[in-house]
Amino acid sequence: MMHMRILYYCHGDKDRKTLHALQQKLPEHHIDAWPDCDNRPEVEAAIVWQPPAEFFDDLINLKHVLSIAAGVDHLLDHPGLPDNVDLVRLTDAGMAQPMAEFVLYGALHAQRRMCELRQAQGAKQWRHDLTPYIADSFRVGLLGAGELGHAAAKRLADNHYPVSCWSRSKKLLPGIQHYAGAAGLDEMLPTVQALVCLLPLTRETHGIINASLLSKLPKNAFIINPGRGDHVDETALLEALNSNHISGALLDVFHEEPLPESHPFWTHPNVIVSPHLAGPTSVSHAVDQIAESLAILSNDGKPAGLVNRQLGY
Ligand code: NAP
Ligand code: GLV
């Protein structure tokens, strides 16, 4: 492969584990860690997670931007991202399995009525009446049936939950009830006891879990959100929790991260807060996939995670 100059920034990579793994995997390329780069006009590729505001300044020959994440909202929202670059995201890269576990945990939590049992324990009440719902008739619905949504759906189905999925395009998923489009969403919502969000954050999906959507779910439905915080109208969710329309929520992502100390989610009895760890990036998988994508891009090919910038994912 031709030598390339690459600029790297990964928010949170304090010990530079990902940087060192990339340098080891791609010895033929020169990788600088932002802001240290003595020749920015020579940079052809960027490998990033949540780059700072000035990251793209003077990168006049930038061709490829590779996200060290499945989501690219952190890039599409970036005012400095040039229009003409290829944008590539991670596809699965070791995230699908832990993500499926997170979703399964949420389904089990809701189906076994753990919110109510925790409250009963707080009051030292022996609530023998809180029998679990039957898994076989506890339907879980997923918004998003992509790399992660599909893997989570399969894991739920393997654990005897009836599963429904909603996505933009129509799909045939064995054993899973599938819906598409606005009418499909309205049809699915009243049938699910737990709702999972595994959508990308785009113009169309921003704030999708709002008061209107929540009102279409049956009473006592449970929310599982490992997508993005901005999929949820947090005020509407709190209102639905406080009025007992929604029984509880397992949330991994938030409008503001880290979740501010004063946020009511921290202390809400029926909310479980997880610090954006539902599908942690596996450094070795991510580095392998980034190396493969770079090789394909430098041969003018289209890697698996090439983003459609019109659609935003
Ligand atoms: P993906 O493969 O691109 O799948 C996205 C799914 O959403 C697809 O099924 C797509 O429909 C559907 N979709 C997109 N826009 C839609 C719309 N307007 N209406 C209906 N469906 C729509 O993405 P992924 O790899 O599964 O990742 C999903 C998201 O998970 C990421 O974008 C990221 O935000 C989040 N994530 C979170 C963590 C974490 O740790 N919390 C980790 C990784 C990822 P089509 O199939 O029809 O295209
Ligand atoms: C993490 O949130 C990701 O998008 O990979």
State the main characteristics.
single chain, 313 residues, alpha/beta, Rossmann fold, 2 domains, seven-stranded parallel beta sheet, five-stranded parallel beta sheet, 18% strand, elongated, binds NADP nicotinamide-adenine-dinucleotide phosphate, binds glyoxylic acid
Describe this structure in words.
With 313 residues, the chain is an alpha/beta fold. Helices cover 28% and strands 18% of the residues. It has nine helices and twelve strands. It has helices at 17-25, 73-76, 96-111, 114-122, 147-158, 181-188, 211-216, 234-242, 283-298; strands at residues 5-10, 30-33, 43-49, 64-67, 86-88, 140-143, 163-167, 177-180, 194-197, 221-225, 246-251, 271-273. The chain has a seven-stranded parallel β-sheet with strand order 8-7-6-9-10-11-12, sandwiched between helices. A five-stranded parallel β-sheet has the order 2-1-3-4-5, covered by helices on one side. Helix 1 crosses helix 9 (283-298) and helix 3 crosses helix 5 (147-158). The mean pLDDT is 97. NADP nicotinamide-adenine-dinucleotide phosphate (NAP) is lined by residues 70-71, 95, 144-149, 167-169, 198-202, 204-205, 226-228, 252-253, 276, 278-279, 313.
